[in-house]
Amino acid sequence: MTGASRVRAVVSMQSRPILKSHARLQYDTVREAWALLSPERVFWPNEVSLDILRLCDGRHSVALMISLLADQYAADEAEIAPDVTGFLQEWSDKFLVTL
Q1: Distance CA 65, CA 19 (A)
Q2: d(C-alpha 90, C-alpha 93), whole Å
Q3: H/E/C letters for each residue in 48-66?
């Protein structure tokens, strides 16, 4: 089989994540919850995931996102960094976030 293969983007502290143009956050009034809508898929992020996704605007670096989230949750940056970067990598791999 031939064809173009996708090169996996890898998250770094300098990455400035942004939601893909086909993905958007929307509040569902029936469920009283936020959803990330993508063609043929709906994701229901928990509170922490939603806070990360809200920072995916192309302006915040991953390092800044970790700092802001650490302040917001009174957490140690070194402790939450692997969770934040892992989340962003997973969502990039799902084609929902551009790094």
Answers
A1: 14
A2: 5
A3: HHHHHHHCCECCCCHHHHH
CA dihedral 81, 85, 13, 33 (to 10 degrees): -90
Compute and round to an integer the Cα radius of gyration of the chain.
Answer: 14
Q: State both tokens at 17.
A: 């994540």
3-class DSSP assignment, residue 9: coil
Residue 87 CA neighbour count, 13 Å, CB half: 19
Q: What is the pTM of this model?
A: 0.89
DSSP H or E stretch at residue 70: helix 62-73
Alpha-carbon distances, residue 79 vs 32, 52, 61 (angstroms)? 30, 15, 18
pLDDT digits (tens, 9 = 90+) for 19-72: 999 999 999 999 999 999 999 899 999 999 999 999 999 999 999 999 999 999
Q: Are 92 and 11 in contact (CB under 8 A)?
A: yes
